[in-house]
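In response to reviewer comment 3 from the previous cycle, which asked for concrete evidence that the modeling workflow produces usable outputs, we include below a single protein chain processed end to end. The sequence was submitted unchanged, and the resulting structure tokens are shown without manual editing.
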Amino acid sequence: MMPKILNKQLRKSRVRAKVTGTAERPRLSVFISNTNISAQIIDDVAGKTLVSATSVGAKQTGTMTEKAAAIGQEVGTKAKKAKIKSVVFDRNGRLYAGRLKALADAARAEGLEF
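The workflow returned the following structure tokens.
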């Protein structure tokens, strides 16, 4: 396996060893590909996705950072409707910068605590 992919998998497993979602404080998992962004709020105990938002199939235009902010806002709004106030942030092996930070800041602006 390529070292870049292996290093990301190691970072991801390190984060996931410490971060688990419960019913009181579910996990906000973020996946960022080259063209799309997805975010899910997951209860790991029950094994269920409570809220999700994705840019796949959306007619959004703009940079990936702008898409990330829109997804963060959408997931924050849906979480508010589902009465979820605080979550655990799962950055999925990515560094907390750029697109990931934009998504997190937008979700925080909607009232999510993490």
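DSSP finds three helices and four strands in the chain. We consider this sufficient to address the reviewer's concern, and the full set will be provided in the supplementary archive.
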